[in-house]
Amino acid sequence: xxxxxxxxxxxxxxxxxxxxxxxxxxxxxxxxxxxxxxxxxxxxxxxxxxxxxxxxxxxxxxxxxxxxxxxxxxxxxxxxxxxxxxxxxxxxxxxxxxxxxxxxxxxxxxxxxxxxxxxxxxxxxxxxxxxxxxxxxxxxxxxxxxxxxxxxxxxxxxxxxxxxxxxxxxxxxxxxxxxxxxxxxxxxxxxxxxxxxxxxxxxxxxxxxxxxxxxxxxxxxxxxxxxxxxxxxxxxxxxxxxxxxxxxxxxxxxxxxxxxxxxxxxxxxxxxxxxxxxxxxxxxxxxxxxxxxxxxxxxxxxxxxxxxxxxxxxxxxxxxxxxxxxxxxxxxxxxxxxxxxxxxxxxxxxxxxxxxxxxxxxxxxxxxxxxxxxxxxxxxxxxxxxxxxxxxxxxxxxxxxxxxxxxxxxxxxxxxxxxxxxxxxxxxxxxxxxxxxxxxxxxxxxxxxxxxxxxxxxxxxxxxxxxxxxxxxxxxxxxxxxxxxxxxxxxxxxxx
Length: 496
Ligand SMILES: Cc1cc2nc3c(=O)[nH]c(=O)nc-3n(C[C@H](O)[C@H](O)[C@H](O)COP(=O)(O)OP(=O)(O)OC[C@H]3O[C@@H](n4cnc5c(N)ncnc54)[C@H](O)[C@@H]3O)c2cc1C
Hints:
Layout: H1 3-11, E1 15-17, H2 19-26, E2 33-34, E3 39-42, H3 46-59, E4 63-66, E5 83-86, E6 95-97, E7 102-105, H4 111-118, E8 123-124, H5 137-143, H6 150-153, E9 160-167, E10 172-176, H7 188-192, E11 200-208, E12 210-211, E13 215-223, H8 229-237, E14 244-250, H9 252-259, E15 271-279, H10 282-298, E16 306-308, H11 311-318, H12 321-324, H13 326-329, E17 333-334, E18 337-338, H14 344-358, E19 362-367, E20 372-377, H15 386-399, H16 424-437, E21 476-477
Parallel strand pairs: 2-21, 3-5, 4-5
Antiparallel strand pairs: 1-3, 6-7, 7-11, 8-12, 9-10, 9-11, 13-15, 13-16, 14-15, 14-19, 17-20, 18-20, 19-20
Helix pairs in contact: 14-15
Bound molecules: flavin-adenine dinucleotide (FAD).
Flavin-adenine dinucleotide binds at residues 29-30, 64-72, 75-76, 87, 107, 129-131, 135-136, 138-140, 142-143, 145-147, 196-197, 201-202, 319, 322-323, 407-409, 444, 447.
């Protein structure tokens, strides 16, 4: 046990994990970045967190919350010397309130486990990220995660009613409430959603629930090369009656990669659109499937689409689109941008143009109904050209009226690009809020907010330090960036 781990244990902050184990288990997320935490803790409840925050403030040690560590931009990669707060074991059974269609959920509960608990009650929690088999509700809240069904139902923020959290001041807060409607000033609940563990540590979440449709089926539609993705997506998105709940896209490379593990569920050899349809009866479902297929034929998409009766299984499979590309593309940039749906073809073209300019292979999949694409550029993400590729992509999404992050968050990899989306007064407001909630800058420093003064967009940041090898390609160390100078050795005394 290191002196820091001993000090944490003495502070009574839950189970303490030593440095070696912490580095093995918590140094990475789904990005190429690598951090070297000094320890990790597994809190038993909010009181442990209050003590941890007090201890970390006194010793100026960064704290990084962690659910499943599945984020893709370094959101959960700890800076060197940080203490990781592992929420994955904080996962009691959800308290389901059937009459009010809501549930209190612990932050470590895995998204699909929540769905399993809700199924017998005829309810469901709509945001279903591709990572729903592993990602936690705490991580979903902190990144404002979304998924295929966000086309109809929206993102995590739309389904969180109330939150309990421990701020970086050590204070416990409860924001939001039990009712869907609230008109009591600015919405602090919404502020915590998407804050990537930089304002507070979320300890309890009251989610809103939807009535589970009686039937869900999905169409798997191969696209001929001449079909315009935008026209197809828009036509399905305008389908009347709120019956379409998801519109997903795989380009030919992504479809080929997924087909290899799809046991016939996804065809290879062409791009594919996947459409989920909700209905009440078998007859309604059959008629709906037939009329959508007819409409697609009228749009120049010939042939009979495949019908997938188990839409949940299809989304679990679709969530593997990224990992399925590992063999073909290897180390790569995995991006997440969105534009208004009428500009999806323009975004697709600009992705291809960037790939051509840099001589790269690119695979693209995503939630096309939301105008949200995930281009995967086959390039060493730690290499010098990767920053230009990312900068060009994010700038083109903004130029098309879109966003630099649709659902994954900002993390360490995109924080220097934040000025593309937030003007200077808005950024200053965000910094002010950060100072109020986290006066010592101990909560996930180096994520989300760019360092002051704002760096020019273009260079990957928060990934300073030297490449240190890993996962077949190079990994970059996530450098500590607590604004007022954290000390890696947490047992040292605070300067007076
Ligand atoms: C194969 C794959 C598919 C994916 N598909 C999608 C997708 O379709 N949609 C999507 O939105 N994302 C997707 N993701 C990204 C990722 O899974 C999501 O961002 C997810 O919400 C992260 O959850 P997590 O539990 O892994 O959080 P982590 O990665 O552990 O943490 C994410 C962020 O949340 C913070 N955090 C975690 N717990 C707490 C807490 N209790 N309090 C405060 N802050 C906390 C962390 O500090 C970090 O900033 C995918 C990732 C993979 C690997």
